[in-house]
């Protein structure tokens, strides 16, 4: 089959981009189509070995973060891409839709959905621009038409695959489409091996983009008031003010973006890992922490409920305030954590499992076509 890959945009390298990386490795001849490619970005460097085709609108939307305020152009962005020559298109889609491109009647479209666009359906977003009244007015008008496009383009997908049971419920709720869950690929075995023999140190770790809706400021306040050491890996994105807020609060060591090798050492050396996003779509970082032999303190919601076993691989909390986190850390330190159980749980989300399940689904489509 002649296969193409589609992804929202090539800019930051995060969890969704790790899925794209795995798909690109599975189908090395498949070009990657995208709304825009920001050259020199962390994501661009990760896909330097792949043929990437930008939309004709890329020149307009990729500079000065205009891709966000110019979201009303999204239907035109994707419709400008003609993928009719392909037998199969696999799209990795989330906040920038990555659907609605032109295909032929013979083309099958498979969507790996990280989440329906959060900003369209009332979910908390990482950058809360709607705190400004002019943005709220703009959003009311534009989002109405984007919801129409979102629903229309969703019906053009032949098969839905999602990253969690949490996302599966959203796909049914908003699109009335059944989906199969294939957990995203995590380099579990590599992390397990690299963490062997690493001595634990007395710090907690957070790995996240420095944006809102992640509980980062709450964690920093808890660290400052409760006297525990907190390190944070991640870089600021777009118009987010979270980095400025964190520096104002104090109580956290901001490490910025680090190499995968350094990140592995930080995971393995941490006493514990903290993840406080209230409705995370999946949450790759908690799996990476467990694979590194590090138990987790996570919010009892979203994808964390599928990855963390309370009392076995971590502690789940119902709130993110300082009092709750203080109690959580006290409980965390009273538990004798079993590294073997942490590794066992993390292996459910390995890259090998992802490739096996995705490969079987694509093979079935190919057989059905024959």
Structure write-up:
By secondary structure, the chain is of the alpha/beta class. It folds into 2 domains: 3-185 and 350-369, Rossmann fold; 188-348, Glycogen Phosphorylase B (Rossmann fold). Helix content is 40%, strand content 15%. It contains 15 helices and 13 strands. The chain has helices spanning 15-26, 42-46, 58-61, 74-79, 133-154, 165-175, 188-195, 216-226, 242-249, 260-269, 284-291, 304-307, 322-334, 339-346, 351-369, and strands spanning 3-7, 32-34, 52-54, 88-93, 108-113, 159-162, 179-181, 204-207, 230-233, 253-256, 272-275, 296-299, 314-317.
Average pLDDT rating: 92
CATH architectural label of the largest domain:
3-Layer(aba) Sandwich
Biggest sheet, spatial arrangement of strands: 3-2-1-4-5-6-7
Total separate domains? 2
Helix percent reads 40-55%
By DSSP, the count of extended strands is 13
Tell me the fraction of residues in β-strands, as a range. Answer: 5-15%
Shape: globular
- Structural class per helix/strand content? alpha/beta
Low-pLDDT runs of 5+ residues are: none
Distance between the termini: 10 Å
* Main CATH class of the largest domain: Alpha Beta
CATH topology of the largest domain: Rossmann fold
